Amino acid sequence: MNYSDAERAAAKLEELGYKQALDDKDADLILLVTCSVRKSAEDRVYGAINNYHKKKLYPKLKTIILSGCMANRPEVVKKADKADIFLDIKDLNKLPEFLKKESKAGYVETYFSVKPRYQSSFTAYVPIMTGCNNFCSYCIVPYVRGREESRSSEEIIAEVKDLIAQGFKEIILLGQNVNSYKPATAAAIKDFPDLLEYLAKLPGNFWLSFITSHPKDLSDKLIKVIARNKSAGGGSAFGGKICEYISLPVQSGDNEILKKMNRKYTISQYKKLVKKIRKQIPGVAISTDVIVGFPGETEKRFLNTVKLFQKVKFDMAYINQYSPREGTASAKLKDDVPKIEKKKRDKELNDVLIQTALEINKKLIGQVLDALVYQKSKGDIWLGKTRTFKVVKFKSKKNLLGKFVKVKINKAESFGLIGKSIDSSKKL
Ligand code: SAM
Ligand code: SF4
Fold first, then answer.
1. C-alpha–C-alpha distance, residues 4 and 196, integer Å
2. For residue range 221-255, what is the model confidence (pLDDT) as tens digits?
3. How many structural domains compose the chain?
4. Does the residue 114 lie in any domain?
5. Neighbour-count burial for 288-303, b at 16+ CB within 10 Å, e otherwise
6. How confident is the model at residue 234, as a pLDDT?
7. Which ligand has an atom closest to residue 251 CA?
8. Nearest residue to 210 (alpha-carbon basis) of 250, 238, 182, 170
């Protein structure tokens, strides 16, 4: 979400006459789009702002703008007083006023209406909503991003159509919980599955995916929409348009901890949901987010998360060590798992993930997968992303950046695949 916000902020600055500096040392203005989810992220921003004040390092710098989540935290605004401007991203319209510049584009209804300066020419992040109403006890997002606000479906459709016309190959829809998407207007599109299916039916050669889904809200309707738009015949050159990838943050494998986290589902419900998804969407990849060391997470309770990892076998997991966030409900609980223990649990879960992800990836050996090439590595090695968000390495002398290719998998690692591009195999 921050990446996407930064693309809108960059567009606004360009409109005011600024040009992107190749190196931050040459910049006369720096706008930071910050994250408050963990303390470590905030600490890095304080460090960066202090650094920016070193004239020897940043001789041209005149203005530091602090935006993103941190700008909406009064205690941060006090502490980061070396920043010149604090900007709520929703107030992008006020940027000309803050910088005393004339805006040519004029007023736009919401910050979503600012046309982004996309950083890539083939992958685009499209926010469909902002904010969150869930108030998980550890999470700062509802306090800094505010309540859920859904973007109008007309505006989203217009942005996606424009991206397709420009030749974008991958469109990733964003929301803290896309399943809460509720547009105020447009009778035909009532919820997220309606929106996803509408976009999947647009003509063009592109992939559609979305992050992220709260397990309590992922509906049967959504599973059906993915299932019927994922197989060949959906219109995309390779398979259907909706990618077989679901990010389904579980946060803990222990029911008592889930209750304390205010997650509103049990592990048995989560496992049933995963089973249903895997049955109806064969080949789907499921990733998760998890927090280790939440207050009250005894060794026994943590082992329930280990067991869940062993049982579910995730394709990927983002493991976070608990960090109390002032103002949230869990910050009032004693942060009773020592840092060293959090680190140990992080590693233990990662070790399970390394094994299970490898097991899953090995099953792909011999298969031909579609990939979108996103980066050139050393030599003639290219990195592609499969429809299930797996990195695949292969060799080619052709310039394949931003192109769809077919790759035959011949080796599997826990967090990646190695293969041979069949389109250019004769030349290898
Ligand atoms: N909306 C998503 C969901 O329902 O899970 C997650 C969004 S949150 C911004 C991203 C991830 O940060 C969470 O899934 C959680 O694992 C992690 N996170 C949030 N607050 C945290 C905290 N206080 N300490 C450690 N990790 C945290
Ligand atoms: Fe945070 Fe929970 Fe909302 Fe996700 S659903 S953003 S974890 S409050």
1. 19
2. 999 999 988 754 333 444 579 999 999 999 999 99
3. 3
4. no
5. bebbbbbbebeeebbe
6. 37
7. 1
8. 170
Token readout for 152 is: 């109008």
Domain that holds residue 322: 123-362
How many whole angstroms separate alpha carbon 389 and alpha carbon 417?
Answer: 11
Asked if residue 163 lies in contact with residue 126, where contact means CB atoms within 8 angstroms, the answer is yes
Classified as helix, coil or strand, 344 is helix
- What pTM was estimated for this model as a whole? 0.94
- Residue 58 to residue 53: CA distance in whole angstroms: 7
Q: Is residue 106 one of the residues assigned to a domain?
A: no
Nearest Cα residue to atom 4 of ligand 2: 176
Q: For 45, phi and psi rounded to 5 degrees?
A: -70, -45
Does 352 lie in the same domain as 203?
Answer: yes
Question: Where is 157: in which H helix or E strand?
Answer: helix 153-165
Note the pLDDT tens digit of each residue in 356-398: 999 999 999 999 999 999 999 988 999 999 999 999 999 999 9
How far apart are the CA of 139 and the centre of ligand 1, in A?
6
Mutational pocket test of ligand 1: of 217, 289, 325, the residue with most ligand atoms within 8 Å of the beta carbon: 289
